[in-house]
Amino acid sequence: MAGLIGKNLGRYEIRETLGEGGMATVYKAYDTRLEREVALKVIRREAFLPEEMEMLLKRFEREAKLLGRLSHPNIVGVIDYGEHEGLPYLVMVYVSGGTLKQLLGKPIHWKRAVELILPVARALEYVHEHNIINRDVKPSNILMTEKGQPMLSDFGLVKLFGEKSGGETNVSLTSSGAGLGTPDYMAPEQWTGEATAQSDLYSLGVVLYEMITGHRPYTADTPAGVLVKQATEPLPLPKNYISDLPENVEAVILKVLAKRPEDRYPSVESFADELNNLLTGREVTATAIKTEQLREMMTGKMKRPAAQETVVVQKRGFPLLWLGLALIAILALAGGFLAFSRSGIFAPPLTATETSLPAATFTMLPLTATLPPTVLPTSLPTDTPIPTATGIPAEITDWKNVPMRYIPAGEFTMGSDDTGDINSRPESAVFVEAFYIDKYEVTNEMYTVCSYAIECRKPLEGGSRTRPSYFDNAVFANYPVLFVDWKMAKAYCEWRGARLPTESEWEKAARGTDARLYPWGDGKPDCDIANVSGCIEDTSAVDQFPNGVSIYGVYGLAGNVWEWTNSLFDFYPYDPDDGREDPKAFGERVARGGSWHPFGGGNVRSDSRLSLDPAYAGAYVGFRCASDQPKLVP
């Protein structure tokens, strides 16, 4: 493709080659219309079979438009696309400071390395939120501005080709292994084509490892050689290269480079938060396990009692698994190809904690059973008795010691025609399957446990409306957590093996089957039954109003704080199958229940709805979790 130098692709004048890979060549070009320099990435025709080019061009246009919508200060923006004599190309912002790769070759002080990698992690977090998997994170794809700011580039382009969508067939790459990624930076699972957000996280960890130590974890003369080493050799400890590296820094690196995805950080977001903890001198969650134990676990040399050794090896067993895959890869590469499946820019979207959870073991308890001691609240008021099916407990305690109340299956009236809120009309009959919902709003103490377990970010502010010290103050441990946005609430519930309730579940828990206006009935609220406007003028303890519980024994469904639900805001009648319950969809989410403040209109009726940007986090909104089958202590 050197023949393109000096030619024009539309309004772009090709001036010089910046780089070349297995699938595309990148040129420095000049935009004659806007009179500026740009980077032009031209797809190599020879990388694809001729009969696939027509489909490729159609998909290229569609995906280029999606990539062009991305906007982040640390992402190299796509500003145009086109086609020249059957060759598709992308036009990107030109970044003139070289690449991160040019800064490597010797160790970089860990603080400087973390400062450089943190913006890239935030950019990758943004890309994942848009359901795009990079699959080729490496130093040469991290560009540097003139002022030394890192910019993530080439996101999504590898996965753009090869995804099976609708009736389309997979695009075949004629260059052997062209769609896999760069071997030295690939996660173990990526060798089989199973690229996910966790694969990007691993690759970013390799980049950080190389920056700090001056070495890549695994290198070999061939891709198969890298795979064999990765499968059979323990991770070389960073301290082998940098003897004075702080233990917490090494612990973070070891965790992000765990061979099994489930042993890594649950998301790039949580990894970025951990990097920020390193820079600010706060304790990192990776050091919750003693560093020596973490070293042993991450390097595959975990010491265990001899009696358990056989069982553990059978359970983990990844060296033998990956060794087998390595042999398959060697045979495939020797034949000139490496088959892989499930390629494509849009893999199933992942959330902050979307890893496989073990199936919940639901233990039926009699209503008189002695439950394990709960973390919260410290005192339990007398519950409103409710009828339940034989053998189904009205209340259980999940594996995180959080009490949950049973809501039976059945039809109820959702919404109301007798209200001034047009968003609650029309009322209609809605059927809800049986589920459990938290007895209380999630408290500061409940949420703190998750924040120490990596999956949850700390609240965006530590105070409340009138209390400068709130979240970390033991006085308010039993009060609802605040300054948590929708995504943070969702992550907490998933950490517990639960989820946010749907809007219909929340309303049934509050209204019962008799269409009551408030959880306690039709009587108007006052300061004896709920924390509403004009009472306490800030949040109250979650168990403070026993006279205001719903018929199912659920506290705080009116007043105190609005509560996030899973549901996208949409008009009634409610239809759970119209996309409003899709947790991956974009749009405003519904909060229910009102708060102690007139925020949102001051209405605390059980049918009141509030539409909020999912990024909202404030002093008037909290949440609780729900589950079809709560995860219990074995």
Write up what this structure looks like:
The chain has helices at 53-68, 110-129, 157-160, 197-213, 223-232, 247-256, 268-280, 291-298, 306-316, 318-334, 444-451, 486-495, 503-511; strands at residues 8-9, 12-20, 24-31, 36-43, 78-84, 87-93, 142-144, 150-152, 395-397, 403-407, 410-414, 428-432, 435-438, 562-568, 589-592, 609-612, 621-622, 626-627. It is α+β, with helices and mostly antiparallel strands and 634 residues long. Among the domains are: 2-93, 2-Layer Sandwich (Phosphorylase Kinase, domain 1), CATH 3.30.200.20; 100-334, Transferase(Phosphotransferase) domain 1 (Transferase(Phosphotransferase), domain 1). The strands form 5 sheets. A 6-stranded antiparallel beta sheet has the order 1-2-3-4-6-5, with helices on one face. The chain has a 4-stranded antiparallel beta sheet with strand order 9-10-13-18. The longest helix is centred in the first third of the chain and has 20 residues, at 110-129. The termini are far apart. Residues 156-179, 297-323 and 325-390 have low confidence and may be disordered.
